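Entry 14. Ran structure prediction on the chain below.
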Amino acid sequence: MIAKFRKKKKRSSWKNIFFSMFFIVLFILVIGFLFITNWKINQRRVELTNRIETLKQEVAILEEKNQEIKERISQTESQEYLEKVARDQLSLKAPGEEVVVVKKETEEEKEEVKEEEKTWWEKFKSIWTRD
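Output, structure tokens:
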């Protein structure tokens, strides 16, 4: 009877060791899984935080541009601006004003001016040197 008891004790001890090892491995796997998911969540949090910062900067820039556009809109509604645009782009004039047109010189006109600036001696030399 004692021999049978010892055999049962050995069998139950192997079962206990097996279940203990099984639970230890299961526990380590669960801890590892939790560690990995926590690490991934932290990485994602860092990425989202960086994205939020860049979006805040973009919003600030767009708000500045929006303010500038609003200022330009209010400026375009003024009478002075409308008169300036009418003069510059539409070539209109206000009553009582004189319009002056400045013509750009062409290359031929520049050469003629250079010819007129020459002295009589240089003109005479240029005639004889052409031939």
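The chain is about 80% helix and 0% strand. Will compare against last week's run tomorrow.
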